[in-house]
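Please review this one:
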Amino acid sequence: MKHDLDRLMTERNLDALLVLGNSAGNPVMNYLTGGAHLERALVLKRRGGPLTLVHGGMERDTAAATGLRLVDRDAQYNQMRYLQVHEGNRLAADVAYLSDVIHNEQLHGRLGVYGMLDAGAGMLLLNLLQDRLSDTEIVGEYGESLFALARETKDAAEIAQMAEAGRLTGLVVGETQEFVRHHAVRGDAILKKDGDPLTIGDVKSFLRTRLLHYGLMEDGDTIFAQGREAGVPHNRGTESVALRLGQTIIFDIFPRIGSGYYHDMTRTWCFGYATDEVYAIYEQVKEIFDRAMAAARVGLPCRDLQQMTLDYFEAKGHPTARTHPGGHEGYVHSLGHGVGLDVHEGPSLSVAAGNHTLLTPGHVVSIEPGLYYPERGYGVRIEDTIAFRADSSVLNLTQFPYDLIVPMG
């Protein structure tokens, strides 16, 4: 959580931090500003001091809503002046500007740098900036960074935003199901009014209108995959494929709300009917899903949930990522992951080496067991996102039924 920043800075021997970049596609910036839309902003902090936002003058109202200490960039660091001094050299101007901010805000000692820039541009900018600094050492982190750890646990306000994202996502999923249900059927074909087959592309076009209606944004293509494609976990579904009764459809939807927080849920459907084989597989996935949901509690090692899922599926005779590493059939992935400002973040519900994380108040994770048999023409996955509240209770953020068979008409 944000109140952990000073502790995490101390643990990493950081005296200050600096976050760079536009807000778009910049989870750390969004985390600190509450999802405010900002261009070329900076967020900085000295250990023990307040978070400060350096913003453009045209965005002063947006900046004020963040509640952070504010510095108007146009008033105190006029960009045109820097360009004039450096004869239009944008790189030199930016280096001078950042050097002045670091000096004026007393970001001395070890300065952790975060945010989003083009990799090459960032390397060049930071190397030149370091050359200008005499009492500041620019440092970076890789992998489990300060912000990755801070973002793993959410406060009550963040969980409330994620609950709203879950509620709206459930509405979209329900309306999408109804959209398909009310089409005509001929044999195993699902038809539009003009007699043409209803396709995955038609379904995705509809659900995108509903996402827009509810103020949700689709980052990456929603998974709506049928038959063999449902047997490949991240196959998005070929848009030209016609929907057919009796085929498994994995519907994995992961939109985000305006503040940047995601929801992640998956349902498996068979329109009209399901084969006996698919129904039996679905019952197994649902059974271990229910067991994992019941077992998830504060203090439990994250790896234990994956361990019990591996044990269950192997006892049922399925290959797993443990018995057949790199295999493409059976249970091929971990049980879940953290959800927040990234759809995949910490903690991981895996048995990977070094994963000693315990479920903690503030964690928000997906629970998503699945079985995949592409050459048999099906895949099955069920996924909810759950939050562990401050009182250690578990809140299911996903609100939608689990029925496999969706009646038509």
